[in-house]
Amino acid sequence: MMRRCPLCAESTTALYHRDRRRDYYQCATCELVFVPPEQHLNAAAEKAEYDKHQNSPHDTGYRRFLGRLFTPLLAKLEPNARGLDFGSGPGPTLSVMFAEQGFTMAIYDPFYAPDASVLTQTFDFITATEVVEHLSQPGEVLTQLVAQLAPNGYLGLMTKRVTSPEAFALWHYISDPTHVSFFSEATFRWIGEHWNMAVEFPGADVVLLRCRED
């Protein structure tokens, strides 16, 4: 069966890894590693997994975790920048951290904050922390988010990165049944080229993409 990449839509893909539960394919073009759609959870089962999360803006450990994206992105923002936390989850926290610094924030989450009107607005920065690995159609979602960025806007992502087949086989990250798309540094560089964005890696699990001027 031909496996079309859910990020770049190319069909040159090959089996990257297989375990007892799922198969993982890698795209030869953008190097995304992905689980085929017939092995994804349905929406109800997916939400049931997210309902187990106990994240809260009152949790200092969670704030520290989010700080890995918050701190480098904050240093780049102009005063009065307007942001969107995409995939904000059941306990929105990153949006609270930016609001505390005086930024106007919106949130969106398909399960917990499904106000689609924010997806028609423009933002100076958009964050997605521990989100892109859950996307069954990352190409469609990234196209949407990039289109919502103002000139010179930032897209800040946090997700653990693929490094090698050997490490992947032992990786705890693939044991989460809601994780279906896995990005490497090469994948993010492809994203930067495809959408004409500058790419920066301020930390092991963090990438900042900035819209270039045409």
UniProtKB/TrEMBL annotation:
InterPro entries: SAM-dependent_MTases_sf
Gene3D superfamilies attached to this UniProt entry: Vaccinia Virus protein VP39
Pfam families (UniProt xref): Methyltransf_23
GO BP terms, alphabetized: methylation
Record has Methyltransferase as a keyword: yes
Keyword Cell wall biogenesis/degradation (UniProt): no
MF-aspect GO terms: methyltransferase activity
Keywords assigned: Methyltransferase, Transferase
Protein name per its UniProtKB record: Class I SAM-dependent methyltransferase
Species name: Vreelandella boliviensis LC1
